[in-house]
Design goal:
Layout: E1 4-8, E2 13-18, E3 27-28, H1 30-45, E4 51-56, E5 64-65, H2 67-72
């Protein structure tokens, strides 16, 4: 899955970019939420990381949660 990418710069800032492929807006799914959780845990565990930015690769940050996920709740 490529909903989130993580890049850490020389200053120790990790940027997590949310950009769901083939969607006009970012929609959170269970899989993307799990990936985000793992990426944040990895950044917090890395002593070289001084901060984390979560941003969007799209014009709008988010379109919401996948309604199929909500329906199963």
């Amino acid at each position: 899955m490529t909903d989130f990418t993580a890049v850490t710069d020389a200053a120790g800032i990790t940027t997590l970019t949310w950009d769901v492929p083939e969607r006009s807006m970012n929609v959170m799914s269970e899989a993307s939420l799990s990936l985000l959780d793992r990426l944040i845990d990895a950044a917090l565990a890395d002593k070289a990381v001084k901060g984390v930015i979560i941003t969007s690769g799209k014009k709008d940050f988010a379109g919401g949660m996948d309604l199929n996920v909500v329906a199963r709740m």
